[in-house]
Amino acid sequence: MSIELNQISFCYASHTSYGEYALREVELFIGDGEFVGIMGHTGCGKTTLAQIVAGLLPPFAGTVKIDGYDINKKGYDRKLLRKKVGFVFQYPEHQLFETTVEREVAFGLKYGGLSWNERMERVKDALECMGFAFERVRKESPMSFSGGEKRRIAIAGVLVSDPDILILDEPTAGLDAKSRSSLHKIIAKLNQRGATVLWISHDADSLCKYADRIIVLEKGKIVMDGPPREVFADQTKTEQYQIGTSQARVISEMLQKRGFKFERKPITYQELLDDLCNYFKKGG
Q: What is the pTM of this model?
């Protein structure tokens, strides 16, 4: 499902002398099924952009179109938007409130017109997608799980409505390495199944591995937009906009300074490993 932003601007406290623009005339098109990473330092407008796409904030100016329809136009069915777009906040586990995992995940289907059996089938699928055994966890309290597991339960509560667009605001913040890796793979799997993914992150390594495209924001404007290899090739700009680069790219540059020659500039660990193997096969 496509996303189109036309001349989007947003200003906080716009009617006061303290008004500050978070976004300025943003033009953006994201195609059906794209996996897009959104980067930029704190305060650049990433979360504001995501919330406007999700319909959680109305733009100060401009239009937002989901699948060709203006979501802020009078008469647009907002219930349809909630079904199409799933939003995962930075710490979604803080919003858990139900007494059992089953009830927690099913809450988003409460007014969907589905039968009990249909709701439970959806809940089962969402939990299993997040790596849980449905029968083992369904009657447990969501509060009894670890931090990473709580987050996966909260995300299951978003996935249960089978959104066409999944927006994630720093979903791995505060998680250990194992939980981060697990969540990355799950998000990639959902994208492979057809979901359009917008992933706000500072994790260049993960975006290099999974994203088709990276958008960089600076002072509410898009300043970089392209494939990961293209974005991270410009070291001057990555330093200017404080987005860093992947560790594989850093290591490859260190090796090049010591005489290693690569046919490309590897940006993932797998690419780096493959290039090193090829280098030594050719005799160095």
A: 0.86
